[in-house]
Design a protein that fits this description.
Helix content is about 15%, strand content about 40%. It is of the alpha+beta class and about 240 residues long. It folds into four domains: about 1-60, no CATH class; about 65-100; about 110-155, no CATH class; about 160-235, no CATH class. The strands form five sheets. It has a four-stranded mixed sheet. The protein has a four-stranded mixed sheet with strand order 7-8-9-10, with no helix packed on it. A three-stranded antiparallel sheet has the order 11-16-13, with no helix packed on it. It is elongated, with a radius of gyration of 34 Å.
């Protein structure tokens, strides 16, 4: 009659003692493997389900790798969001996809002549010393993965008065008037306001940057008769 493996173990104490550590190791390894598929908790038996690692303590902190600048720069192909502690500067650094940045880093002012180059991070500012224009770095409204410079102007060069004379908008029709506006670009927005009371039925449909250094304003006539446009309009660029 064949004896079971367990029978042998319990009958032969030396064999059982030798195998017991292996059995315990396999049980613990299986438990850790199963637990690691969800959330891992340190200092808690109930880690938050939304966290891969949940560390709980009232007397200790988390210590991330401490690297010198040379050691940090030697990291090959750092992942976006990789975090280290810069021991040379005594500051936390993270990889933003293009460079090592400081955690909590404030905005940076750049200056130059003309339109800014492709540089800087979100909320950085740039002063065009030639025109007085100020640009702010932000994400493109049409492509949130791309950073662009948005132009502002605080020296009143972003405002201009234009005149329309003798233009006629057909009944239930549209008319577009275009004006030269130096420095305006596709990233700018346009506001248009009349310096007089528009005739009843005449509406400023919208204004936009229609080309390099050009702004256009579209008028709509909601009446059954033609309307003539004559007067001054204020344009503002943002």
């Amino acid at each position: 009659m064949k004896k079971s493996l367990l029978y042998v173990f319990f009958q032969d104490k030396s064999s059982f003692i030798r195998v017991l550590p292996l059995v315990l190791f396999l049980v613990v390894a299986y438990a850790l493997s199963a637990h690691a598929q969800g959330s891992v908790g340190i200092g808690t038996a109930t880690p938050n389900a939304s966290a891969a690692l949940d560390v709980v303590s009232t007397s200790k902190g988390v210590l991330v790798p401490r690297l010198t600048v040379a050691q940090r720069n030697a990291i090959a192909s750092p992942a976006n969001g990789l975090l280290i502690y810069n021991s040379d500067a005594s500051k936390f650094n993270y990889w933003d996809g293009a460079k090592w940045a400081e955690v909590g880093e404030g905005l940076t002012w750049f200056t130059g002549q003309g339109v800014p180059a492709n540089m800087g991070k979100v909320n950085d500012l740039y002063l065009d010393e030639a025109s007085g224009d100020i640009y702010q770095r932000n994400y493109d409204s049409l492509n949130p993965l791309v950073l662009v410079w948005n132009r502002f102007n605080f020296n009143k060069n972003n405002k201009k008065q234009v005149a329309v004379s003798g233009a006629t908008v057909a009944a239930n029709g549209f008319s577009t008037q275009s004006f030269t506006f130096p420095g305006v670009g596709s990233s700018n927005a346009v506001l248009c306001s009349p310096a007089f009371d528009l005739p009843n039925g005449l509406v400023i449909s919208h204004a936009w940057v229609s080309g390099a250094n050009e702004v256009s304003v579209k008028f709509y006539n909601s009446t059954a008769a033609p309307i003539s446009i004559s007067g001054n309009f204020q344009l503002a660029i943002f």
